[in-house]
Specification:
Helices cover about 50% and strands about 20% of the residues. The chain has about 425 residues and is an alpha+beta fold. It has four domains: about 70 residues; about 80 residues, Beta-Lactamase; about 70 residues, Helix Hairpins (Orthogonal Bundle), CATH 1.10.287; about 170 residues, Histidine kinase-like ATPase, C-terminal domain (Heat Shock Protein 90), CATH 3.30.565. A five-stranded antiparallel sheet has the order 2-1-5-4-3. A five-stranded mixed sheet has the order 7-9-10-12-11. The chain has a two-stranded antiparallel ribbon with strand order 6-8. β4 and β5 form a beta hairpin.
Length: about 425
């Protein structure tokens, strides 16, 4: 019996040991599978983490790329929330508004002077003038997911566009008036020639008869005046082809001042000459350009009825690439501190026969404009009533002598 019990217990022990071995083996296999799965998960996690890091880097690079584009756009961009509080602003907008991020982020857009009257509605556009610049401000909506995301305000400096548009309109207007003036001048000139001849004969016949001779002299003088006006008008209408020479601009200015010296001294006008350090040579007609300068000097003198100060000189400046293919230009300025020109008249002062003076034909500035344009340049004016006027002739430098021009404002003195 005891042997039988021992044999049974030994069998159970073997069976239990076998089951333990089997379970242990299963646990070992499960552990191996679990370990392999853990390695797979770890590798998968490592790959996903690498993809996430790459994605974050790409997102950061893209954000930097977009930020670079935003900050270097040629127009100002200001983004607000739906209540008009500023959330984002680029460099051009800060320059236009003359503000920094710390002054803008979180405040109402209407705190900015040129945006004060801009309504937050899609398609709204308003132009505002600030100092010497004109800005076009336009609004569009920024839609978020499900709720209004805010507004985008574009701020574009349209000063150059307005400037060239005004110049084109002026040229068109002058061309039409020149054609009309030439036809009128030709129609008047023939009978006027006969009148001048008859006036000369009448003077000869009345010599010695003082009262009548004086009247005939006034008649002849009036006819000569009208003839001179017609000659100026015809010169304006047909223009004059420049005789090209290499010119030193400072010498040209000096010659014009010598011609005008008696008049300047007679009216006690102080002359201040200013010349850029790196002036350039130009090609042009010295007679025509000297005449243009004299007309500007005479115009300045007429604007200073009781004497004053005249600034005249040159400055070289790099113009926009679409002006003279990026070539430097020579600016010649004539500035007075006279009575100035009302803003509403500035667009008309280069029109023939437009004048606010009691005497004069109104052809002086029109002829200046023709002469400068015949040399491939432009003439512009800045003026404030009671502060004076500054006329600037811009002429292209000789390409072979072009140098890096420095930027300056000839009318800032």
């Amino acid at each position: 019996m005891n042997a039988s019990c021992q044999s049974f217990e030994l069998a159970e022990l073997k069976e239990a040991f076998h089951m333990l071995t089997s379970v242990s083996r299963k646990m070992e296999l499960s552990y191996e599978r679990l370990k392999a799965r853990a390695e797979d998960l770890k590798e998968e996690l490592r790959e996903k983490n690498a993809r996430l890091v790459a994605s974050l880097q790409e997102q950061k690079r893209l954000e930097g790329f977009l930020e670079g584009i935003l900050q270097n756009l040629p127009v100002g961009i200001l983004v607000t929330d739906d209540r008009g509080r500023v959330r984002l602003v680029n460099q051009k907008a800060k320059e236009a508004l003359d503000r920094e991020d710390s002054d803008l982020i979180g405040v109402r857009y209407t705190a900015c002077d040129i945006l004060a009257e801009v309504p937050l509605r899609p398609g709204a556009t308003i132009e505002r003038k600030k100092a010497r610049s004109v800005y076009s401000c336009s609004v569009s909506s920024l839609n978020g997911s499900g709720t209004p995301g805010g507004w985008v305000i574009l701020i574009e400096d349209v000063s150059e566009i307005r400037r060239w548009k005004a110049l084109a309109e002026r040229q068109k207007r002058l061309s039409s008036m020149g054609e009309m003036g030439a036809r009128i001048a030709h129609e008047i000139r023939n009978p006027l020639g006969s009148m001048e001849l008859n006036a000369a004969i009448l003077l000869e016949e009345l010599e010695g008869n003082e009262p009548l001779y004086t009247l005939a002299g006034r008649l002849a003088s009036g006819v000569r005046t009208v003839t001179q006006i017609l000659s100026n008008l015809l010169q304006f209408a047909k223009g004059t082809a420049p005789r090209w020479e290499h010119l030193e601009v400072t010498g040209l200015v000096g010659e014009a001042l010598e011609f005008a010296a008696p008049l300047l001294r007679g009216k006690a006008i102080r002359v201040q000459e200013e010349y850029g350090d790196r002036g350039c040579r130009i090609q042009g007609d010295p007679v025509l350009l000297r005449q243009a300068l004299l007309n500007l000097i005479l115009n300045a003198v007429e604007g200073m009825e009781h004497g004053g100060s005249l600034r005249i000189g040159t400055v070289e400046q790099e113009e926009a690439a679409d002006t003279w293919q990026g070539a430097p230009v020579q600016k010649i300025f004539v500035q007075d501190n006279g009575k100035g020109i009302p803003e509403e008249e500035l667009d008309r002062i280069f029109d023939p026969f437009f004048t606010t003076k009691s005497q004069g034909t109104g052809l002086g500035l029109a002829i200046v404009n023709n002469i400068v344009e015949s040399h491939g340049g432009i003439v512009e004016v800045e003026s404030r009533v009671g502060r004076g006027s500054c006329f600037v002739m811009s002429l292209p430098c000789q390409q072979e002598e072009a140098t890096d021009g420095y930027t300056a404002d000839p009318c800032s003195g």
